[in-house]
Structure formats: structure tokens, C-alpha cells
Amino acid sequence: MSMVVKDESPQLERIRKILEGQHGTLLTSDLANFNIPRTYLSVLERNGEIERVSRGLYRVANSIEDELFSFQARYKSSIYSHETSLYLHDLTDRAPLSYSISVPVGYHSISLKESRHKIFYVNRNLFDLGVISMKSPHENGIRTTNLERTICDVLRSRNQIDVQLINESLKRYVGKKERNIDLLYNYAKQFRIQKIVREYIEVLL
After folding, report:
1. Does residue 22 sit in the same domain as residue 102?
2. Whole domain around residue 27: which residue ranges?
3. pTM higher than 0.85
4. pLDDT means over runs of 10, the chain (205 residues)
């Protein structure tokens, strides 16, 4: 028995360090990256140290779930966009009650379709345009659209978004030092909404 404990301890400590470095969350794919057998997850789960959130995703027991990170770990092809991205970029103070996400055209997920979340389908040729990595409020990496792509998405889908939210976010965008109007127009051209974007933005400049 002592040999088993001796052999397990270094691997368990490695997992604990990964959890600590990732703010209490762990993907089974993380273990593969470190060549740690998945059986050690079962040991920590039996010990009550971690709990399963969803398939392939664990967190420290009794910790606050990073829902943004968990959701994207479950739906790996999704990116946060539209209203959710507006909130992440501080272009609105309205915390989203459900997520707005974009997925490539042709992406199928029954559980996602049946969820309460707002789904936008984007042509695969343009899907990765302006997609960036940023930190969630829990400091875990998530994928979302950058400022300029977010503005284009909002204006492309303006009939599905509250007009007051659009106006507020555009004013905040124009007021940001890090805005890039040339990049915005470049994205707008690729999405074929250059005229619409110019009409909204030039009034505010």
C-alpha cells in the first residue's frame, strides 16, 4: 500500500498545481498535455477534492464555477459574440442573462440548440476574423470577438438586438482609446456592411 501512495503522490501534486494555476478548473485534455493518466482524477474525486462539472471538465470541490469557461469547454467551436462580447469589452454594463455565441455554419449540437442561449451562425471563411483570447472574470482563458468584430456583429444583427444597447455600445466604442476605425471598416467590408457601419460610426466621430 505504501508503494501505491508513493507512486500516486507526485502525480496528484502535479494535478493540484495545474488546478491552482488554472484557478480551480481542469480539462481532461490538460492531463494528456502533461502525460498524467486520467485514473488520478478518480482518486481526487473519491477524496472529495474535485467534482465533475461536465464531460471532460472538473473543478475544485465547492468552488465557484467559472461559467464562461465551462460553457466554452463544453462547446469548443463556440466563441462569445454580440451582447456577451459587448459586456466582456465593457461596451455595456448589462450583464447577459444568457450567452450570445457564434458558431460556424454547419455546426450541430442538439443540447446547444435546446439551451436558452442565443446562437449566431457565421460563414466558415469569416468565422475566425477578429477572434481573440481574453481572461474571464475568474482569470481563465476564453475566446471572444475583438472590439471591431463585435461592433460589426452587432450591426449585422441589429434587428435582433435592443436599439438602446446598440447606441450605448457604439458611443462607448468610439470613446475608447484602443479603437481602430480602419480595422473596423476593413471588417465591415469583408462582411459587406461597410455602408451601414459608416452611417452609424461617422455620426459619432
Report:
1. no
2. 2-65
3. no
4. 52 89 85 88 90 86 88 91 97 92 92 88 97 92 97 97 96 97 98 97 92
